[in-house]
Amino acid sequence: TFVYHYVDCFCFFFQAEDGIRDAQESRGLGDVYKRQDFEASATYMRTHMTDAEIRKSHVSWNAIQYMVCEVQYGGRITDNLDRRLFNMYGQAWVASKMLDGGFEFAPGFKMLRFNEIGMYQAALDELPKDCEHPSAFGMHANADITFRTKQCNDLLNTIIDMQPKESSAAAGGPTREEQVLQQSVKFLQSMPPLFDKQQIRNGLGKLAGGPNAVAQPLTIHLKQEIDRMQIILQLTKSTLQNLELAISGTVIMTPDLIDTLNCIFDARVPQKWLSKSWKSPTIGIWFFNLVKRTQELTSWLSSGRPKAYWLTGYFNPQGFLTAVQQEVTRKPVSYTHLTLPTKRIV
């Protein structure tokens, strides 16, 4: 009877690993030796169970999980996060609890215990129609929404990339490069100036109460936000300047500049900018947020703490909330006016 448990467990386990490996195939890692992994795991399980029965010892589930998840199946999984997920499946399924009567791999996926092939086929026909539902893999239903959203975004981005890059130059209009150059000039004209190091030092010292004073948590948070914004301002300005030089033929058009040119023409945010900043649907909204975020930090640095804070305009909103909590808890409190009620016990 135990053999049926093990075979059924490895079959379900095999399908979960098959899904992970299919995800790797989309990254070009290939699909090899699927059947051999299943047979090797079943052979090891049979050998281990036979040895445990001969020696009258307990089954080492940790050894089985390691051999199956790390050696047999896991040897084909190269992504660290995918391997970590697969190990979690092994801890949940390849364990002693799979021998319990009410064990389920997932809601609606029970352990099959039959002696005839026809009964297995009938049980498989009764399984839920959507066998690839996230619940079958121990995930929330929102995982499918995230996957479908990413799939649609990839499809739309591919369609945009496949569109013709030729513009209306033949009809007398501006070329694609001229349109991008005009937009780049507008961005540079509206670009906020870089933060001056001396002004930052003077402003932070003024907020702290003097050059030798200890900076408060909110002041430290402001310094961290300015440092990150300075990186984005420098990256954006240098990219736009180099793009103008590349369009004019002064410098070589690198892959990053080509991506920036295509993104500006399609009103998308360049990937190099997104890696250092926030997400926005269009480059116009992204640049508007860049200007407003810089103005917010500049006003705080030069005019003191604002009466209202733009929480979503910070790189680290949690850091801001932590800084507020630290300032409140560190604020000195006078206990002279406090009274403690007491009761005399006789």
How are the SSEs ordered, and which strands pair?
Layout: H1 2-25, H2 34-55, H3 61-72, H4 80-93, E1 104-106, E2 109-110, H5 117-125, H6 142-162, H7 176-190, H8 197-208, H9 217-248, H10 255-265, H11 271-274, H12 283-303, H13 317-330
Antiparallel strand pairs: 1-2
Helix pairs in contact: 1-2, 1-4, 2-3, 3-4, 7-9, 9-10, 9-12, 9-13
Write up what this structure looks like.
The protein contains 13 helices and two strands. The radius of gyration is 31 Å and the shape is flat. The model is unreliable at 23-33 (pLDDT under 50). Strand 1 (104-106) and strand 2 form a beta hairpin. Helix 1 (2-25) packs antiparallel against helix 2 (34-55) and helix 1 runs antiparallel to helix 4. It has a two-stranded antiparallel sheet with strand order 1-2. It has helices spanning 2-25, 34-55, 61-72, 80-93, 117-125, 142-162, 176-190, 197-208, 217-248, 255-265, 271-274, 283-303, 317-330; strands at residues 104-106, 109-110. It is mainly α and 346 residues long.
